[in-house]
């Protein structure tokens, strides 16, 4: 598995979930459980704070999100 950080002019990019659009289907967790988790207390999907993200896995989660609510951001 390839781990790296997408770069935008030297800026570290992280995956983000738009909770307003998220249906909590947990597909992202199935694809990348090392990146996404379900918080039972808030009822929301969260991005785990990592120093490096598996770009291929996050891109796969983005591609397969039915609500199109996952994206890379600074």
Notes on the structure:
With 74 residues, the protein is α+β, with helices and mostly antiparallel strands. It has one domain: Alpha-Beta Plaits (2-Layer Sandwich), CATH 3.30.70.20. 20% of the residues lie in helices and 27% in strands. The chain contains 2 helices and 6 strands; from the N terminus they run βββαββαβ. The protein has helices at 27-31, 55-64, and strands at 7-8, 11-12, 14-17, 36-39, 44-47, 70-73. The protein has a two-stranded antiparallel ribbon. A hairpin with a 4-residue loop joins β4 and β5 (44-47). The longest helix has 10 residues, at 55-64. Residues 1-5 have low confidence and may be disordered.
Radius of gyration: 12 Å
The CATH top-level class label: Alpha Beta
What's the arrangement of strands in the largest beta sheet?
1-2
- CATH topology (fold) name: Alpha-Beta Plaits
The biggest beta sheet is recorded as:
2 strands, antiparallel
Distance between the termini: 23 Å
The percent range for helix content is: 10-25%
Total individual domains: 1
Low-confidence stretches: 1-5
- Beta content comes to 25-35%
Q: Let me know the average pLDDT.
A: 90
């Amino acid at each position: 598995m390839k781990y790296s950080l997408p770069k935008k002019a030297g800026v570290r990019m992280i995956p983000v979930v738009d909770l307003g659009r998220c249906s909590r289907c947990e597909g992202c967790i199935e694809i990348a459980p090392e990146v996404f988790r379900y918080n039972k207390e808030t009822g929301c999907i969260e991005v785990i704070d990592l120093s490096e993200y598996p770009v291929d896995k996050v891109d796969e989660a983005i591609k397969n999100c039915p609500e199109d609510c996952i994206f890379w951001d600074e």
